[in-house]
Write a structure and sequence with these properties.
single chain; mainly alpha; 0% strand
């Protein structure tokens, strides 16, 4: 019975050591992946920022237009006075005369 207990304790210790080694290796790989991801993300952000500044780099210069069209102030036309006069001589003065109302 004592031999069984010692064998079980050795097996458990061996299993725990191998499991801890696997966990440590996985943690190292995860840390390497995180470091690589962060460096790639920083590089991508820098590249995107470089593209944005290149896309929006604008220079401004002021110069005279060579074929500029200008407008002049609007002047009123001189129209001749109207000479149309309505004569009331031919209309009879009665109630409703001069009205064109459809009934």
């Amino acid at each position: 019975m004592d031999q069984y207990k010692t064998q079980m304790a050795e097996q458990q210790a061996t299993f725990q050591r191998s499991l801890q080694q696997q966990i440590d290796a996985a943690n190292e790989q995860t840390q390497e992946l995180q470091t690589r991801y962060q460096s790639e993300a920083a590089a991508a952000a820098a590249a995107a920022a470089a593209q944005q500044t290149g896309a929006y780099a604008v220079t401004a210069a002021q110069s005279e237009a060579t074929t500029a069209q200008t407008t002049a102030a609007v002047t009123k036309k001189e129209k001749p006075k109207s000479n149309l006069k309505i004569s009331l001589a031919g209309t009879p003065s009665s109630a409703g005369s001069g009205l064109n109302i459809g009934v």
